[in-house]
Amino acid sequence: MGAGHGHGPVTEHAGGRYRARLAAAFALTASFFTVELVAGLLSGSLALVSDAGHMAADVVALGAALFATRIATRPDRSGRRTYGSYRAEVFASGLTVLIMLGVGTYVLVAGIRRVGQDAEVASGTMLVVGGIGLAINVASLLLLRGGSKESLNVRGAYFEVIADAAGSVGVMVAGVLIIVTGQPVWDVVVAVAIAVFVVVRAVTLGRQVLAVLGQHAPEGIDPEAVATSLGAIPGVAQVHDLHVWALTSGMNVATAHLVATSRGDEPDVLDAARDVLEEQFGITHATLQVEAPNRDGCAELTW
Prior knowledge:
Layout (H helix, E strand, L loop, with lengths): L1 E5 L12 H25 L2 H27 L15 H27 L8 H26 L3 H30 L3 H29 L9 H9 L4 E13 L2 E10 L5 H16 L3 E7 L12
Parallel strand pairs: 3-4
Antiparallel strand pairs: 1-4, 2-3
Main location: membrane
Subcellular location: Membrane
Protein name: Cation transporter
């Protein structure tokens, strides 16, 4: 029986590569939050206040994402975190989901309560502040766009900023509609639309977070295809106990037991299996066990 642990060169995880950009987006967002909140309270605009609330969620989410990238790179001194702290980024994404759901729910409730009220809304302030907010959101999106394709943590922050950019556009649209129609009800309509958009984004991200925490196969990797490729390796008679999951974004992990067709083939099978996983599926961290033929050591496993 042969066993091996294979991995490629040690590289920085996906979220860590975008730490500086997360920091810049955090600084931009935090600097604008107070301005928008004060403007919303003074103007009486629910759309501005709701967008400021979402901006506050951005500040917390970006801060959590930034902090998580720092934790993920810390060495473990306890000896108990055998996988390190990389999943701190996934937990930060989960916090972002909860924040987005909370903000969306609050705005929906506030919008419903304001229906029928004849509130005074300063539409000019909405246009100016909404325009400034949109500019900041676009700058943050440009900073985070690349990382959103590689890191679930950065993707959570990116979704937050997308929702906030939509909020800024909504605030401007509401301001224009109020000026044109003279009806302040548009402020409520746009605020509710922003809330619905935020909730939908939160659900989408939440499903991705749960997939990682549930140790589902990473997106784009079919376990059946992995088993078929491993089974096609010369010298492999059977593949079983295959598990493929994501530790965090950009860090896919696999374990498998391979039954050799004859004794003595174990070293060659082990090397070939490592190559298949890395070259065909991008899995550089794999723990493989090669078993001699007619060995029943794993026959009793039920999971």
